[in-house]
């Protein structure tokens, strides 16, 4: 009943505020085309292509598979890490517990997004973008080593043998492009929907509580959708000294849109989201602190 009430409540809000919902959806769509699609699509296609290439070895060391997942997840952008881990799980290259821990560890924004869009365009300094990227990866590497330690002491640390390579049914590149369209559609849908939802709720909150519109908009958009959240923070708080730290905090939160993308992908392999939640709390705490120390 609660879910139905929430859904009908949101439908009514969208009907009452059609212009606001439209503006939020347009902003989300424009940011997806401008800031996400150019930076993310090439990595997703290449990652899928790499994962669909038949393995040349039937006995790959477990550490090599961990590093492969971590590298692809760290440099491919959201949600390439989740896609990589799930694909390796489906190919029997990772166990259930390994996949669940790596789902949390192999999770980072793409370097082109952080350096190009956030650093150069929003923060106005590529060097600051690099420092932010380094902060994110320091926190991720520390969590990755924690993951390795926990897996080493678990019952599932055994080496699993990769099945013998099967002849691919189609052309790997074409299969990669086909699968990438599904992922991109998921990303676009969540970004546009949560951008519209966050914009509508921000206006309602500001009107009901007399809260400053800039604070309400940035807080809710950052909660729902990271990309439009950092854009809103730039529009309203770029003159403040804490602005770079605020951007780091929003990036480390990721936003509900990205978490939903990961949850949908993880669901296809029946992976628990608990380690992922712990990993996100880890990032929210560490990334802004490390970034502040590097500034």
Automatic annotation (TrEMBL):
Keywords, comma-separated and alphabetical: Membrane, Transmembrane, Transmembrane helix
Domain of life according to the entry: Bacteria
Ranges annotated as spanning the membrane: 31-51, 63-81, 101-120, 132-151, 183-206, 213-230, 242-266, 273-294
Presence of keyword Membrane: yes
Keyword Acyltransferase annotated: no
This protein's name: Sporulation integral membrane protein YlbJ
């Amino acid at each position: 009943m609660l879910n139905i009430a929430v859904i009908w409540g949101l439908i009514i809000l969208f009907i009452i505020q059609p212009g606001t919902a439209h503006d939020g959806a347009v902003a989300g769509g424009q940011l997806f085309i401008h800031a996400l699609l150019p930076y993310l699509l090439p990595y997703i296609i290449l990652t899928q292509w790499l994962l669909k290439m038949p393995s040349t070895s039937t006995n790959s060391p477990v550490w090599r598979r961990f590093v492969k997942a971590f590298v692809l997840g760290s440099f491919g952008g959201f949600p390439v890490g989740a896609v990589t881990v799930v694909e390796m799980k489906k190919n029997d290259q990772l166990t259930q517990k390994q996949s669940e821990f790596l789902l949390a560890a192999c999770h980072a924004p793409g370097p082109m997004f952080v350096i190009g869009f956030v650093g150069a365009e929003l923060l106005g300094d590529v060097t600051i973008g690099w420092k932010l990227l380094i902060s994110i990866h320091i926190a991720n590497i520390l969590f990755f080593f924690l993951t390795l330690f926990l897996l080493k002491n678990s019952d599932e640390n055994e080496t699993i043998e990769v099945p013998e390579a099967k002849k691919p049914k189609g052309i790997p590149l074409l299969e990669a492009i086909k699968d990438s369209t599904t992922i991109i559609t998921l990303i676009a849908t969540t970004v546009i929907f949560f951008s519209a939802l966050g914009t509508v709720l921000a206006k309602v909150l500001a009107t009901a509580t007399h809260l400053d519109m800039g604070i309400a908009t940035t807080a809710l958009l950052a909660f729902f959708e990271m990309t439009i959240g950092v854009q809103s923070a730039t529009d309203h708080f770029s003159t403040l000294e804490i602005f770079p730290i605020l951007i780091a905090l929003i990036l480390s939160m990721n936003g509900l849109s990205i978490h939903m993308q990961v949850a949908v992908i993880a669901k296809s392999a029946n992976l628990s989201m608990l380690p992922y939640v712990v990993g996100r709390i880890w990032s929210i705490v560490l990334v802004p602190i490390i970034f502040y120390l590097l500034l």
